[in-house]
Amino acid sequence: KETVVSGIRPTGKLHLGNYFGAVTNFVKMQHDYNCYFFIADLHSLTTHPTPADLHGYVRHVLVEYLACGINPEESTIYIQSDVPEVAELYLYLNMNAYMGELERSTSFKDKVRSQPDNVNAGLLTYPTLMAADILIHKATKVPVGKDQEQHLEMTRTFGNRFNRLYNSETFPEAFAFSYSENLVKVPGLDGKGKMGKSEGDANCIYLSDSPEIIRKKVSKAVTDGGPTEENQQKPEAIENLFNLMKIVSPADTVNHFDEQYNKCAIRYGDFKKQLAEDMIIFNTPIREKIEEIAKDTSYLRQVARHGALKARESAQKTIKEVRSLIGFTSF
Ligand code: TYM
């Protein structure tokens, strides 16, 4: 069986972007592959969370993984910081990762723009930590959304470079994976771009949002004055809402509003109401499970411990091999 690795940063609750970009693939893949799904708490340190926030969000993501249907008997679910071998491999990979290529990464350039007061070394070396996550289990498939594609390319570069340097075949190449034809990019509600935690709460629909909150957020989603000509191309904000509807609503609902749009007869109020109701239908069973699982701390503890043991077993095998290739052999 091929090995699969993916993770999510515990920087907030999971939203529809995380679900349709990543988690829905996790749930399907676990039947067919050897899967490792983790909570990327080391990665989230780049933004200096308080210990209480960090702990709370790690717990949240763990609950949400389980509520979405990741089965801890089938997949290995773990917290990144429980596997120190990842940090060790990160150190080795950093020795062969160059300033120029790290600075060219789009996610780094975005961060330099969005948090100019906190351009730390962890941000610069974010792609080597991510490569360590993937290479530590020798994964070949990585279910992620479109925004992570470049990181996967860098992971292949670092893995191949290590192999060449030590004349070995330690690391296989890993590729971004989605069951859908293309990698997914779920738009947000602000009319501009992807759904994301850093784009603000109003822009995201969280899996744990109540029906009232969903109705309120969707009713405030950015639209425009409406189409002025028949069959005109949709501006980005409207296209985004249609794309969200394609994700949660049946095809005939989407077609109905599409026809209305093309005939200049669409009423955005009705369109948004339908979108909100279909989001509620989708998220209600998950939200109810989140609430139920969140109560069971001893179960969560057991899942995290069991996952850490399994993940470390695999990670230690790789680290042993890597140490010996590097020349850290005993006298
Ligand atoms: P993160 O925490 O930003 O997002 C987690 C996953 O959700 C996907 N995603 C989206 N997909 C589609 N549309 C969206 N609007 C959207 N927003 C988020 C992301 O593509 C991702 O799959 N660097 C990673 C975490 C990570 C990782 C790894 C992933 C660390 N190590 C190793 C895979 C393998 C990140 O920041 O994801």
From TrEMBL:
<comment type="subunit">
    <text>Homodimer.</text>
</comment>
<feature type="short sequence motif" description="'HIGH' region">
    <location>
        <begin position="10"/>
        <end position="18"/>
    </location>
</feature>
<dbReference type="InterPro" id="IPR024109">
    <property type="entry name" value="Trp-tRNA-ligase_bac-type"/>
</dbReference>
<feature type="binding site">
    <location>
        <position position="133"/>
    </location>
    <ligand>
        <name>L-tryptophan</name>
    </ligand>
</feature>
<dbReference type="GO" id="GO:0005524">
    <property type="term" value="F:ATP binding"/>
</dbReference>
<dbReference type="GO" id="GO:0005829">
    <property type="term" value="C:cytosol"/>
</dbReference>
<dbReference type="GO" id="GO:0004830">
    <property type="term" value="F:tryptophan-tRNA ligase activity"/>
</dbReference>
<feature type="binding site">
    <location>
        <begin position="194"/>
        <end position="198"/>
    </location>
    <ligand>
        <name>ATP</name>
    </ligand>
</feature>
<keyword id="KW-0963">Cytoplasm</keyword>
<dbReference type="InterPro" id="IPR002305">
    <property type="entry name" value="aa-tRNA-synth_Ic"/>
</dbReference>
<dbReference type="InterPro" id="IPR001412">
    <property type="entry name" value="aa-tRNA-synth_I_CS"/>
</dbReference>
<dbReference type="Pfam" id="PF00579">
    <property type="entry name" value="tRNA-synt_1b"/>
</dbReference>
<keyword id="KW-0067">ATP-binding</keyword>
<dbReference type="InterPro" id="IPR002306">
    <property type="entry name" value="Trp-tRNA-ligase"/>
</dbReference>
<keyword id="KW-0648">Protein biosynthesis</keyword>
<feature type="binding site">
    <location>
        <begin position="9"/>
        <end position="11"/>
    </location>
    <ligand>
        <name>ATP</name>
    </ligand>
</feature>
<dbReference type="GO" id="GO:0006436">
    <property type="term" value="P:tryptophanyl-tRNA aminoacylation"/>
</dbReference>
<feature type="short sequence motif" description="'KMSKS' region">
    <location>
        <begin position="194"/>
        <end position="198"/>
    </location>
</feature>
<comment type="similarity">
    <text>Belongs to the class-I aminoacyl-tRNA synthetase family.</text>
</comment>
<keyword id="KW-0436">Ligase</keyword>
<dbReference type="InterPro" id="IPR050203">
    <property type="entry name" value="Trp-tRNA_synthetase"/>
</dbReference>
<keyword id="KW-0547">Nucleotide-binding</keyword>
<feature type="binding site">
    <location>
        <position position="186"/>
    </location>
    <ligand>
        <name>ATP</name>
    </ligand>
</feature>
<keyword id="KW-0030">Aminoacyl-tRNA synthetase</keyword>
<dbReference type="InterPro" id="IPR014729">
    <property type="entry name" value="Rossmann-like_a/b/a_fold"/>
</dbReference>
<protein>
    <recommendedName>
        <fullName>Tryptophan--tRNA ligase</fullName>
        <ecNumber>6.1.1.2</ecNumber>
    </recommendedName>
</protein>
<feature type="binding site">
    <location>
        <begin position="17"/>
        <end position="18"/>
    </location>
    <ligand>
        <name>ATP</name>
    </ligand>
</feature>
<comment type="function">
    <text>Catalyzes the attachment of tryptophan to tRNA(Trp).</text>
</comment>
<feature type="binding site">
    <location>
        <begin position="145"/>
        <end position="147"/>
    </location>
    <ligand>
        <name>ATP</name>
    </ligand>
</feature>
